[in-house]
Amino acid sequence: MAAERELPHFTGKEVLERILARARQGNWQLLPMSELMGKVACEFLGTPYKAFTLELSSSAEIVSANLKYLDCVTFFETTLALSRLIKLGGSSAADLLKQIALLRYYGGAAGDFSTRLHYTSGWFIDNQRKGVVRLLDNLPGAMPFLPKVNFMSTHPSAYPQLADAQMVEKIKAREETLNREQLSYVPLAKLAGVEPFLQSGDIVGVCTRLSGLDIEHTGLVLRQGRGSSSSVHFMDASSRKRNMKVVIEPGPLSRAFNWSSQLTGVVFARPLEPK
């Protein structure tokens, strides 16, 4: 593995080495993707929450990974990138960054700030097109979800990279394209009915009615136990003051989203076996 000093945009060499060693010892590459995702996710339990770890420059977009600190998006994204890495036999930080670039950017190609999949609904749609995930749009009780995003272009002062008016216009164009898409979501009141259909590693996007936004929070499904006695939980990098780390939320997944009256339901996507 390349030394961290050679990859200033990668942090967490010892974490990567630990996970890859456990994967080799347990032959994790032979596991179904859902089970592998669950194992990798649990390796991050207790990892401190930290926002804005991707913002390394106000003038250039840098493909980066930080395994020592995670937010709600980098938690599920890093878990998926590592799971794909294990399946494909990768062994280095550079290999991990290739997987992250595939997931994080439109078409899997990093360019400027506008090429990053900033809105989670866009992440879901683009990664389904790339064959990385499959949207679970036929779950019982699912309804159409139409993104209506404009937060970034209407709040450019919140993003150092949007000091450039041309970049704002690029982001606005991305938003307008995304607003012509459609996904499916499961309303909060219907979540208990979909729990039997969920697997460990399914990606969770919690929808919001807040103006200009699509998805307020993200995480993963974690199924614990076997057969009829198994239970389905929500796992996330939590920014709640009592947590501020990666946790398995108490209770079933269907009761996990009670922190805001603005939440409406959940979009689910299932990681696919890498090719």
Query: What is the fold named in CATH at topology level?
Result: Putative xylanase fold
**Estimated structural class:** alpha+beta
Q: What portion of residues belong to β-strands?
A: 15-25%
Radius of gyration: 18 Å
Kindly state the mean pLDDT as a whole number?
95
CATH class: Mainly Alpha
Shape: globular
Give me the number of helical elements. 8
Order of helices and strands: EHHEHHHEEHHEHEEEEE
Q: Distance N terminus to C terminus? A: 23 Å
Major pleated sheet: 8 strands, antiparallel
User: How does CATH name the architecture?
Assistant: Orthogonal Bundle
Helical content stands at: 25-40%
Number of strands: 10
Total discrete domains:
1
In CATH, the homologous superfamily goes by the name Putative xylanase like domain
User: Which residues form runs of ≥5 with pLDDT under 50?
Assistant: 1-6
Plain-language structure description:
With 275 residues, the protein is α+β, with helices and mostly antiparallel strands. The chain has one domain (4-271): Orthogonal Bundle (Putative xylanase fold), CATH 1.10.3670. It is 31% helix and 19% strand. It contains 8 helices and 10 strands. The chain has helices at 13-26, 33-43, 72-88, 93-104, 120-129, 151-154, 165-178, 191-194, and strands at 10-11, 65-66, 133-135, 143-145, 183-187, 203-208, 215-224, 231-238, 245-248, 263-271. The strands form 2 sheets. Strands 3, 4, 5, 6, 7, 8, 9 and 10 form an 8-stranded antiparallel β-sheet that branches.
